[in-house]
Every structure is written in C-alpha cells, then in structure tokens.
Design a protein that fits this description.
The complex is a heterodimer of chains A (293) and B (122).
Chain A (H helix, E strand, L loop, with lengths): L7 E6 L7 H11 L3 E5 L8 H4 L2 E15 L9 H5 L5 E4 L2 E4 L9 H5 L5 E16 L2 E8 L7 H7 L2 H5 L3 E5 L6 H7 L4 E6 L3 H17 L3 E8 L5 H8 L4 E6 L2 H8 L4 H4 L1 H24 L2
Parallel strand pairs in A: 1-8, 1-9, 2-7, 2-8, 9-10, 10-11
Antiparallel strand pairs in A: 3-6, 4-5, 6-7
Helix pairs in contact in A: 1-12
Chain B lengths: L1 E6 L17 E6 L5 E5 L9 H11 L4 E4 L4 H9 L3 E4 L5 H9 L20
Parallel strand pairs in B: 1-4, 4-5
Antiparallel strand pairs in B: 1-2, 2-3
Helix pairs in contact in B: 1-2
Classes of the chains: A alpha/beta (293), B alpha/beta (122).
C-alpha cells in the first residue's frame, strides 16, 4: 500500500484544538512504509508522545534581534521611526530595544546611518529529530513567553527535513493564523479534520476559507461521528467538499489514544481505515497533478 | 512641572482615556502657567508596540508626570528610564484629575499590566 508518495507533503489542520489533527497525522505516518512526521504545533507539540522516538538530534532555534553600540549611536532616531512594531525608543540619549516586540525584520540595522546597530542571536526554542520504526519525527518547541512560532516552523519544514523520506505528514497548529499558513504553504494536499457540532462547523469554515485562499487541494476527515445528524457533514455536502473518511466516536479509540498508543498499530480496523485514507489522499494528489501539472 | 494625561477629546472636560497607548490625544498641562496643550497620539493606530511609542511621545513632550488609569509594562519601562513619575488617575475628567493632582490626592501607580499586544476591547 501507499505507493507513489514520493516527496508528497500532506498537512493536517483544523480550526481548533482537540479535533483529531494529531490522531490523523500520527496514524497516517504510521501506516506509511516510510514517513516523516513533522509536529508544527510548536506551542504544544504532542505527536512524539505516540511515537516515543529515540532522539538523535537537537538544535536551538534563534532569531536575529538588534543590539546597539551606544558609542556609535548619535540619536538620529531613524530606527525608532522605521520600526512598525515600535520595538525601539530613544530615551535620555540612549536607545532602548524591546526584544519581545521585535519581529526580526532587520530594518533598523539597514536604516542606521552610523552603523550603530548589529544583529545578535536570541534563542526562541528548539527542534528535535527522532526515529521510531519507519517514521522520522521532527518536533518543534517554542519557549514559553515567545510571541511567534513561525521561525521554528520555517526551520522544521526546511528542505533537508523534507527530503529524507518519502511521505511527509505535517501536523499543524490549531486555527488559521500565521503559524498555520507557514505550516501549509508548501503542502501538496491538506486534510481538514472536523467535529460533528455547530462549533465544529464554524472551525471547519475558518480553515476552509484559508485553504481556498491558498488554493490547495484538500479533503475533510469527519472525526467523532455519531449516529445522529452531523452538521460538519452537511456543511461538506452544501459546499461540495470531498469527505475522505469518517471516524466514528469510539471509546476504544479514545482509550488507546489517551494512553499514547498509535491506534493503527493496535487495531486492525483502524490500520485499515488510515491506510484507506492515505490511499485516497495519494489518489487525490495524483489526480491533481494530472489536472494541474 | 508638566503633567501628561491620555484623553478622549481635546478638552479639559474630556474623560481620561482608559487606554494609554491607544488614546487619541495627550493633554500636556503646565501646572505653573496653567497652559494646556493637546498632542495627537500617533501610536493610536500603530500595528504594535503602541505603549512604547506613546511613552516616547510623553518623553519628547518633556512631561514630568503621567496620570493614567492603567499602564503596560513596556510603556512603564520607557517612562521610568526618563524619570517620569506615574500616578494613578481617577476615572473622571482631565480637569478633575489636574485638581486632584494639585492637591496631592493622587497616589503613584502601584502596578503595571503585561500589555494587550494589539488586542482591543479589553
């Protein structure tokens, strides 16, 4: 199974946390012959809890922030005026820099006529690489208090991490903000995971709008399905959205998952479900390539 | 002595603005000459770091004291570096605050908050 996944990148996302992104991502990677699983939910990375990998590499991630040489600064304030985020102030003949406001654009350094500003590194988090059977795991962790995980996600999805294996599954952060956009921007296909509630529909709509904006091929996985009416399914029908798979609300799945087990490795039915899901995604991407080469 | 107050309108009868960084104007009031000057707060529409930019305006207008309802920690750090005293304003007009300040009824601001970072309507 799961042939033809050469360098295929699948992003799994949802409008809110707890819908089943990690469940879907982890199990897709697990049923693939060889996969890379990338946990981009850097504020609360948890995919590694399922894989329990042997960690082989750890890297600190830094961003550039300015540092001033007070002897060179003549107080022209070009940097203060330039910064759209107001990360600099000039008080009592001294430049004050607010590290946590800085967005690392480097503009202040460019506009300084005295060359009084230089870049220095500031550590904002880490990336770890681990191995667990057929899956290579990359996990990003943003340090507490840091405002943006984008630089870590950017590093997680760097070329070298994507090339190592065939299938890449990108476990996105919840929502539809900058960190999600950074996570899906190079994806070949997006899986939207949705819950069968009105709130679930609202969240599905958020990511649906985002995916349309990015013009990505996509499909929906309906999670926690019950016998009764499913508003998320109705939403998919109304908007002509492809439903790739339905996962039923199941105590057994919940138990296994909450104990950190990969359900596809513990239960043959779930292995089948996720294998079929992977196959449909592969077919979708291949069709997409034929239609839009 | 020059005192600064974030205000909603260019009038002494204006209410003190609840927000410092996003206040539309600052009243700069000279206690000795009783002159008042209204300065536009260019930070009101800033993408971020409004408190820092607003504090820079207060410093540049050579205020000695600031009367505010609440203040973020970044703005406070700019003002402290410039030795500007920060007082707890009362939630009424600028005029009443000036009177309260003149009769030593205002106390120094005890605490600052962690900032709203672009979030409105808090």
């Amino acid at each position: 199974m799961a042939e033809g996944t050469d360098n295929m990148k699948i992003a799994v996302l949802s409008g809110k946390g707890g819908t089943g992104k990690t469940l879907v991502s982890v199990n897709l990677a697990a049923v693939s012959k060889k996969a890379t699983y990338i946990d981009c939910d850097v504020e609360e990375a948890n995919g590694h809890l399922f894989f329990k990998p042997k960690w082989v590499e750890k890297e600190r991630i830094t961003v550039k922030i300015p540092e001033v040489d007070s002897k060179l600064c003549d107080g022209c304030r070009n940097c203060v005026d330039f910064c759209k985020f107001n990360a600099l102030a000039y008080i009592n003949d001294e430049l004050k820099i607010f590290d946590e406001i800085c967005h690392s654009c480097g503009g202040c350094i460019l506009v300084c006529p005295q060359k009084a500003l230089v870049e220095k590194d500031k550590v904002i988090g880490t990336i770890q690489k681990g191995i667990s059977d057929n899956v290579t795991i990359y996990t990003g962790v943003l340090n507490t208090g840091e405002p943006s995980g984008v630089p870590i996600i950017n590093k997680l999805l760097s070329e070298k991490n994507l090339k190592e294996n065939k299938l890449t599954v990108i476990d996105c952060p919840p929502g539809s903000s900058c960190v999600v956009m950074e996570s899906i921007k190079d994806a070949d296909y997006c899986i939207l995971v949705a819950e069968p509630t009105l709130f679930g529909v609202h969240n599905l709509d958020m990511v649906y709008q985002l995916i349309k904006l990015f013009d990505k091929p996509f499909g929906v996985v309906l999670n926690k399905c019950l016998e009764e009416d499913n508003p998320a399914e109705r939403y998919c029908l109304e908007n002509n959205i492809k439903v790739l798979s339905k996962i039923h609300f199941d105590n057994k799945l919940g138990m296994l998952n909450s104990n950190g087990e990969i359900v596809a490795n513990k239960d043959e039915n779930y292995r089948m479900l996720f294998s079929l899901l992977l196959d449909s995604v592969i077919k979708e991407v291949q069709n997409e390539t034929i239609i839009n080469p | 002595m020059r005192i600064a107050i974030p205000v909603e309108n260019k009038s002494l009868d204006s209410n003190v603005c609840l927000s410092f960084g996003r206040a539309p104007y600052f009243l700069i009031y000279n206690v000795e000459t009783k002159e008042s000057d209204f300065v536009v707060n260019t930070a009101a529409t800033a993408a971020g770091g409004a408190g820092i930019k607003a504090a820079q305006t207060i410093v540049d207008n050579k205020a000695n004291a600031l009367l505010v309802i609440q203040l973020g920690e970044n703005a406070a750090s700019v003002l402290k570096a410039a030795d500007i005293k920060i007082y707890q304003a009362i939630n009424t007009t600028a005029k009443e605050n000036i009177e309260a300040f003149a009769s030593n009824k205002l106390s120094l601001l005890e605490r600052t908050h962690a900032g709203f970072h672009g979030r409105r309507n808090r």
